[in-house]
TrEMBL record:
Residues 377-443 form the Alpha-D-phosphohexomutase C-terminal domain. This is Phosphoglucosamine mutase. The gene is glmM. Mg(2+) binds at S105, D244, D246, D248. Activated by phosphorylation.
Amino acid sequence: MGRLFGTDGVRGLANGDLTADLALRLSIAAAHVLAAESTGGGTRRPTAVVGRDPRASGEMLQAAVTAGLTSAGIDVLDVGVLPTPAVAYLTGLFDASLGVMISASHNPMPDNGIKIFAAGGHKLDDDVEAAIEAAIDGGVAPKLPTGAGIGRVRPVGDAAALYLQHLGTALTQPLDGLTVVVDCANGAASEVGPAAYRAAGATVIAISAEPDGLNINDGCGSTHLENLQKAVVEHGADLGLAHDGDADRCLAVDETGAVIDGDVIMAVLAVAMHESGELVDNTLVATVMSNLGLHLAMRAAGIDVVTAAVGDRYVLEELRTGGYSLGGEQSGHVVFPGFGTTGDGVLTGLRLLARMAQTGKSSSQLAATMTSLPQVLVNVRVEDKAAVAAATSVMAAVADAERVLGDAGRVLLRPSGTEQLVRVMVEAADLGVARKLADELAETVAAV
């Protein structure tokens, strides 16, 4: 078996790559690795928090995951349809040995995924993922309990209320007087997202908030902002917020309909936290994909930027290592370690709205905190992404492009974490220059 875990759990075509059988075996393996780790081999009855997004295949996969966990002697706390950050939070709140979120995030409905959290709601380290995969690959069936040793399943009826209460503790300012349009992607935040913003005092217009199992991320959410842009302008709203299928992301739209990406959101929130004294060591954690404009804006504000690899798990590693208080990605994953162990789109939206309420500034005025340099990204499908990225001809082409750009831009070429793609990204002060260099590099990559 090849490596199962990607940058964020195990993901694939539901009932194709990601079958009920795989979900069963994965959950049994995770139970044995993580339950033993959290209990220290003791006799305490381990528990697991299990949630999902509303896509249809989640019902099948949750049944398989629950069967695997209970067969391994784990009691399952079923929290139903909730965002990924809610499952992570509840894993810690209930002192569970592990948490499982069944979601493919922003991917189309036919896909699904299994995200596993360790005790405390933390993302898994690479060595733990390797141990789980080794347990699956070992081919030796673990000894399973019988009789009273089999795990039980308990629905947690107040799971959403507990998560909403938690979000309320992170709010820095009432949102009275603000009108927000929320695109819920017909996903996991369709109920708790609007409820959280209303509880904070905002007037909420919810769109794409009627999941039917089939319409998740379908022309809506953080990967399709057109409907949100239109709705914000039509309703004269102060801000638009877009979540993805499992609501660990948040992108925004200002009152004019212009997009506010994750970099801009981080810039706004970093300055706010810097002013309030919340920004530990005056440091923001971003990724290599963040726009050069973010670095320039933070430098002007007296804020340092630590750069991590792409993926919120790597942002989290840097946050934990440095003890920092804010980090995230251009895609809209924003992490507040003081309030959660993973990206939380609803929390991000609340904090962005709170900054508007605190300053009295419009969303477009706040977005002017940073100016993004033109950025061109080209995905090139290849046979062997690692070999292509390391090819001599490719490395020489990157060096040539960097010489052309000098200090006024940058080049990033990296293999995808989930597909056989090499991603070519070029930033420059001029869009035409960025596009020309990106296209030339993509041709070189494709020719290897």
